Input
Amino acid sequence: MKTLAELRSRRWFADQGMRGFAHRQRMQQQGVRREDLMDRPMVAIINTWSDLSPCHAHLRERAQAVKRGILLAGGFPVELPAMSLGEVMVKPTTMLYRNFLAMEVEELLRSLPCDGVVLLAGCDKTTPGTVMGAMSMDIPTVFCPAGPMLNDRVVKGGVTRTVGAGTHTRMYWDEYQAGHLGADELQRLESRMTRAPGTCNTMGTASTMTSIVEALGLTLPGASAIPAMDSAHTRMATDCGQRIVEMVWEDLKPSRLLTRGSFTNAMAVQMALGGSTNAAVHIIAMARRVGITLTIDDLDAMARRVPVLANLFPSGDRLMEDFYYAGGLPALMQVIRAELSIGEMTANGKTVGDNIALAEVLDPEVIRPLDKPVSNAGALAALHGNLAPFGAVIKPSAASERLMRHTGRALVFDSQPEMLTAMADPLLDCDENTVLVLRNAGPVGAPGMPEWGNLPIPKKLLQAGVRDMLRMSDARMSGTHYGTCVLHISPESAVGGPLALVHTGDLIELDVAQRRLHLQVSDEELARRRTAWSAPVQPFRRGYTKLYQAHVTQAHEGCDFDFLQGTEPTPEPAIY
Ligand code: FES
Output
């Protein structure tokens, strides 16, 4: 147990010199009583709310609930705003700013008198961003997930369909492009599909990452599936506030919670959920922050053992609200208990095994038993070959069986605008067997590795009834999307990866069963092409993007900054 004198915040407020005088003085300036600073831990609430982050629209209210819990437990809450990465609004991509948010969180916590932290986040990159920062700062941490939005229903021709964000956006857009959906209907969907605050309600990146963080033991049990607009969500936020104060006294910080077993649990959960391929990048980056080396082959090995059991879009046909009613993550973890390291300690001071002991599946159609999986194809496969020397990933459970073994002629695009223009061309030279290739879309090349990997189907093929093709890139794909998309090709083309050497007309071979991705071009010809290749000219001469391009690691390494990885301690700030 920690004593009052050992708290970080005492360095600011118990100091008997002029600095301590000024710190106490300035807190009283804003109406805080002197005595409230002197005998209790100061707990930060990192809040990623903003008016342009609709998934986090409720987080100012939730911060009040967290504060209530902190005060009830004898702590002093301080709310600190951090960069809000609303997935849909932020351009060119939130991934460009994940490391920015991680740095901001780490440095906010280091530079201010914080004894512990509650992280309020949930929209895609905000979860790994805030968690990576807190891991590196290594003070007691509870993650309070924003929670998924509510479902909506569409009634058409007497048939009721449940709809949600992400997966259905692409699905209905394709139907509109194909002429099967009218403009009026599309406009009605625009106002209904995301009908309440909260994160995307498919098993996209948001729910994948909040579930992974729950599996790591950094949330309270069951927190990640609670719908944002459920009153249980507010109560959970208060519980987070109450618990973090206890954790401060217990000095229960990430380095005491996170082990290789914690990450084994996170990987198992990702696979059982049919989670987003984006997790392959984030989980590796998070592990490296605490000195644990994971590879995409570790993820592949877990995907071979754990089938997709959560019947959630895009691998299944239900939404997060259904998952919550079915028992949420503790129930799913109970089903895959044999694959878990159940002795790992979690934020509530109990082990994973303790937390899931009483969990049960309440709807076996949503959380399937092991003998009735949603898919045996696996939520992730790691591919290797001459086109991806350091690897690439694919999500077989959301792909087409017919394309799992496929050889086709490449149609190559050097940029996203070029590709989008071509997709609308009625004379585009392609058919359903063509392999669409996009490059210069990786961490350095795009920059920021945007979610361009789910290349749209050419309009002329959509109208002919084609709904999937083999697509490949050094980009990522939204976790809410589906299709046969080879992603995260590493090294990326902009740094000279073999993807840079593909020509339109080359044959590309994919064999998921063999984990093989092969460009059918001789080594001699590739060497000849390499001598003629030069790196694309980058227009970023200053600022954050220049820093990003200079220091971002490749997809198989987690796309963290090279100088942020590892556990080398940063000295506490001097207080003079
Ligand atoms: Fe925020 Fe999907 S856009 S979670």
Notes: The chain has a mean pLDDT of 96.
